[in-house]
Design the sequence.
């Protein structure tokens, strides 16, 4: 898994690209604070090599809790900026710092 951040000089946003190698998966979503944990707003597209990928424009100077939803299983990003305990879910969420 990987996250790529591209800060834009012309806008107060960061283009964040989420890449998830999940060759056997049929669907992968990124869900978090930035899309109200709604899978329909975080669909990643499957590439020919089996990797799922998607880019989102997120406001800079903020932090966001998120997780991947891979075929109904929640997974954290291994390269997250940090992790945050979430009482509601009873587990840690990955955190993205912009």
Sequence:
């Amino acid at each position: 898994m990987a996250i790529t951040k591209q800060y834009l000089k012309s806008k107060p946003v960061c283009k964040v690209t989420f890449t998830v190698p999940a060759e056997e998966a049929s669907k992968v979503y990124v869900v978090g604070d930035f899309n109200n944990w709604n899978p329909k707003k975080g669909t990643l597209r499957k590439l020919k090599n089996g990797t799922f990928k998607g880019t989102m424009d997120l406001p800079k100077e903020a932090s966001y809790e998120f997780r991947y939803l891979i075929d109904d299983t929640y997974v954290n990003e291994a390269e997250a900026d940090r992790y945050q305990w979430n009482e509601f879910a009873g587990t840690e969420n990955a955190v993205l710092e912009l």
Q: What stands out?
A: The beta strands are 2-7, 13-21, 28-32, 43-46, 51-59, 63-70, 73-75, 82-86, 91-97.
